[in-house]
């Protein structure tokens, strides 16, 4: 074979490997990456899924975070899970550079016990997810809001959560899946002291230092993003500072925080300009914190929601355009918005 032919074969092989590799921005926000990951939550049973994914990709979004309602999509243990909504979403992600985190929540009765969700069945679901979506699914969050009865499905139990986390992580590692398991989804909605005490209880189990990422969920924030926790009694976006202090108190300085859901309170931030400013300031506040790997705004495509980033026709709102421009400015490129013509 001629040398020039060998060169073309080699180049073709390199290109093929590149296409099969993990997307270029997939590591943003993960342990070991210096880059901050920009995320948005996506409702897989909502409208405009394809438009949402395409716009997110165009605007440089790194992560889509998806809540997988286990009881809804796998209600009967004797029947296969209903994958159509999730398949549709993952097909839309396609060859984009977007990575996906799936949050498993709302375990069905058949997969739950007095202490909470079944470790073995949660492991089985996690394995099915990573086998089905090996390319873009890079993180799984286990039962966000586990510090609440609603999030855990039973009385919150840090030891039971620790056991479940370790079982799921072990099951994934045993099959060689290079996926990050995200823990807790700490939600301060039922009180900051209660949430922080639960996080401390996770460390008291003895396994907290092995968790690569502690996740937080701060829905319906009533204050501007820059508001310090010391200024008000309710939780703020900067609840992450309070959670971080618990991590540091337990020697977990190498652990990351992901904010896997945050949004403003709809009666406090009402007009488009205020929403755009709020969202930009939120990311400007979080991005410099080197211990925050990724933050995901809720929500991109929930039709009718005040915080939806898409209009009813699927086009990006002015708020989404402002978000895209923020990302572009931080990364040094221009993002075309719908107003560019």
Biggest sheet record: 8 strands, parallel, barrel
Q: CATH superfamily membership, which one?
A: Glycosidases
Q: What is the share of helical residues?
A: 25-40%
* Gyration radius from CA atoms, angstroms: 20 Å
Q: How much of the polypeptide forms β-strand, as a percent range?
A: 15-25%
Description:
The chain has one domain: TIM Barrel (Alpha-Beta Barrel). The protein is 38% helix and 18% strand. Helix 5 packs parallel to helix 7 and helix 7 crosses helix 8. The longest helix is centred in the N-terminal third of the chain and has 18 residues. The radius of gyration is 20 Å and the shape is globular. The N and C termini lie far apart (51 Å).
Topology (elements, then pairings):
Layout: H1 3-20, E1 37-41, H2 49-58, E2 63-69, H3 70-73, H4 84-93, E3 99-105, E4 112-113, E5 116-117, H5 119-132, E6 137-142, H6 149-152, H7 158-174, E7 180-186, H8 192-204, E8 213-221, H9 239-249, E9 256-264, H10 272-286, E10 292-297, H11 318-331
What can be said about this structure in brief?
This protein is α/β, with parallel strands linked by helices. The protein is built from eleven helices and ten strands. The protein has helices at 3-20, 49-58, 70-73, 84-93, 119-132, 149-152, 158-174, 192-204, 239-249, 272-286, 318-331, and strands at residues 37-41, 63-69, 99-105, 112-113, 116-117, 137-142, 180-186, 213-221, 256-264, 292-297.
Short descriptors:
341 residues; alpha/beta; TIM Barrel; 8-stranded parallel β-barrel; globular; disordered C terminus
